[in-house]
Amino acid sequence: MTEATALPAPIWNILIGQDEVVTKLDRAVHDAELITRGEHGPAMTHAWLFTGPPGSGRSNAATAFAAALVCPENGCGQCQICRNAPTGGHPDVDIVRPQGLTYGVDDARELIKQAGMSPTSSQWHVVVVEDADRLTDQAVNVLLKAIEEPPPHTVWVLCAPSTEDVLPTILSRTRHVVLRTPPDAIVVKALQERYGIDASLAAFAARASQGHIGRARALATDEHARMRRQEVLRIPMQLHDLPACFVHAQNLIETATLDAHSITDSLDVQEAEQLRKAFGADAESKLKGQLKRSLDSSMKQLETTQKRRRTRTVRDQVDRALVDLLGLYRDVLLLQTGADVGLINDEMRPQLSQLAANGTTEDTGRRLLAINYTRKQMESNVTPLMAIEALMVELKDPWVRAAS
Ligand SMILES: [Zn+2]
Predict the structure, then answer these.
(1) What pTM was computed for the model?
(2) Where do transmembrane segments lie in this chain (predicted)?
(3) pLDDT tens track for 234-288
(4) Cβ(203)–Cβ(41) under 8 Å?
(5) Cα of 62 from ligand 1 centre, angstroms
(6) For residue 190, what is the enclosing H or E element?
(7) Read out DSSP for 218-279?
(8) Which residues of the chain have pLDDT under 50?
(9) Strand 154-160 relative to strand 175-178: parallel, antiparallel, unpaired?
(10) What's the 124 CA to ligand 1 centre distance in angstroms?
(11) What spacing in Å lies between the alpha carbon of 73 and ligand 1's midpoint?
(12) Would you identify the CATH topology of the domain 3-178?
């Protein structure tokens, strides 16, 4: 093998600080090609479990793997396929992101039907299930058989935060790929080399994102993202009375909603256009009869999915703010205990010292608990505004719950 071919395929460049994973997946894609030629390819298998904390690149790894399997060049990173497949824009790649609270039996049955279809333009049909931890136990049981004996060209890629989040039955039937939170130094280096970010901004972004690569990139490259973060971090210093709590809760939700829509709106339009095109309808031409009814019903389905995605994206944005607040109170706790560890928000040291002086470690502990509780609540069906209002009141007065 020449040195050039020994390098991992370019598509893996998207992963940062995950050398082991890249080697494993690159080999799997290589062996997948051998298998399609009827040869032996032990590095490839048909059921995978990708785990890693949020932001480690878990779902990027999974979707890049899917793209590499359907790219004729094994993941050139350049072609239309490599560009479209990771977002589900390829007929042989299904990206399933359970949008609701949990993923039930009916969804699982539908998915298995879909997964069973032969690939149309490549050698594999890859089904990526993001957040497989949202599958109900019943849904898992339905899926297990399909995962155990998939049609020869089907590949399952399940993603979850950790192995504890999935049933042992899944674990034993899949090959495991573990992504780790990359150390700050590697994130800094990647930001400098890939995006030309200067050293101090890169260091800030790496620190502030707490190992979350996508977040680090956004903070390093997008001033708007930095501004939003700053707004969130200023909230704890401004919760002087109850009306302030409600105003800040309202602002936080409104901002999250705006930001979420700026992410989803263009996707919505693109998808609707793609669907219309697939039916051979452009802006001018009008469809008739069965074809029109069929397009209308697909359009309705698409709108339902898009609506769920919007809701979920708002919640993701709120969660991001909550993670930033967790980091802030972690810093406050460090200052209160005099621990000699680097602060996530070192540039706010004076304000943080003020917060630290204004309360006890018990206060800070209760605030951290309140934030974590709200994060969990946001995963259930609670109204985001109400959950955040309650949180703001607890951040103002961490003993309010005990008193009531
Ligand atoms: Zn390609």
Answers:
(1) 0.77
(2) none
(3) 999 999 999 999 999 999 999 999 999 988 898 888 888 888 887 877 655 677 7
(4) no
(5) 15
(6) helix 184-195
(7) HHHH-HHHHHHHHHHHHGGGG--SHHHHHHHHHHHHHHHHHHHHHHHHHHHHHHHHHHHHHT
(8) 1-4
(9) unpaired
(10) 14
(11) 6
(12) Rossmann fold (3.40.50)
